[in-house]
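Minutes, project check-in
Item: structure for the 453-residue chain
Input as provided by the requester:
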Amino acid sequence: MSKSRSSKYKLSKAAWNVYNSFRIGRSYQSLLLHESNFFNSQRPEIRHHQVDSLRSLIFYAEQSTPYYTDLINGISLDNLYETIHDENIDLSFIPILEKHHIRSHLDTLCSTRYKPRDRIKNSTSGSTGTPLNFYQSRHYWNCRNLSVYYFDRWAGWDFGDPQLIIWGSLAEIDSGKILKEKINRFWRNQYWLNGYELTELQMKITFEKMQKVKPTTILSYPSSLYQFSKYLSEKNLIPDWNIQGIISSAEMLHPHYRTLAESVFNTKVYNRYGGREVGLIAMECPEGRMHINCRDLYLEIDSTDPYNQPGDILITQFNNYIMPFIRYRIGDIGRISDEMCPCGNELPILAELLGRSTATFKTKDGKLIHGGYFTQQFYKLKGVTQFQLIQETLDQCSINLVINDEWNEDEKTFVESVVKDCLGLGVSLSMNYVDDIPLPRSGKREFTISKVT
């Protein structure tokens, strides 16, 4: 390790220590050790933790959250001991929480024991066509970060190690955020390649820089990882980085994405599954199984036979008492397994995960545009309930729109300008107004589809 690389590593490791200790209010190292011990514990202990967490959360929600007070209608601890215990967990007495419930009951879903100033507002990126707003607590974020730190170590990441991140970065086009982002990336020892605009020039510059930095891990959108891997392969550029592992997140990891990336970088890709609403849900271990984050949440499959028949994934989040998510339908389909993993970790396994992949669009001059760019732009439109943008050819796009009474000519002009500014002024866009956009077989809507790539 060079002197400059060693110095940067030590500086970043120290900065991580200060940052986490300040956020948590105590040394995070002891907390991380405690959480690691739980994640490495045996299945009966894991089960008992989930039972206790479910009882506490549900009783709290019924007592302090108007939405659940009306919904559950007087559940007692005695009732909870009967329906939730180590041998069996039955949550069927609580109706499933849908996204439209959150939109309609945002205020009554918030606990009355917290003041509005304690709420941290967050929202989804709009992959469903419409953003979902919700609130989280500082405690939730501290727990979420600790879990990410634990699971990312499976892929070889550690505090202070240089990391290449291929992710959508709106900050790069917002001058007011550039300086802040540069400072954060410096002390975190992170190097970014904007996944929203993967040009050959930017990929070439990033490759050459990483030849000097030699990152330990990569964190990336699966589709962006695939495009970067494909570029390196076609240009016969061989990374000399000694990558420990690649963390793939936020989209479906298709087999051909994984195969190419593992070949180009000569390392394993670790699939990480989560949601902005509930945090990290599961992550792939070295043996290739997706282990469920049982410390922070309880995962159900809405199926009569969850071990053999895939169904909707329902999440109950343990740490966000400020706005409890109980049996939340996150929008993905999966299947669980009762097997014990050869890796030795006894966390339960998410055996199958089915979901939507975000398409990558291509322009005439070869620029690659991450589909998430359009999602970020269109979700702010009040007149659009749902959308589906399809790149038919390099010269033609179509967009299916489910609109409401707030749709107007200004929004129509905005949609046209976003597509043309991004894909080229010569691109024609046909708008189709529909009553509904049918679900694909995967069960998760595809809002950006490219028939070119």
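Outcome recorded: The chain is about 35% helix and 25% strand.
No further action items on this chain.
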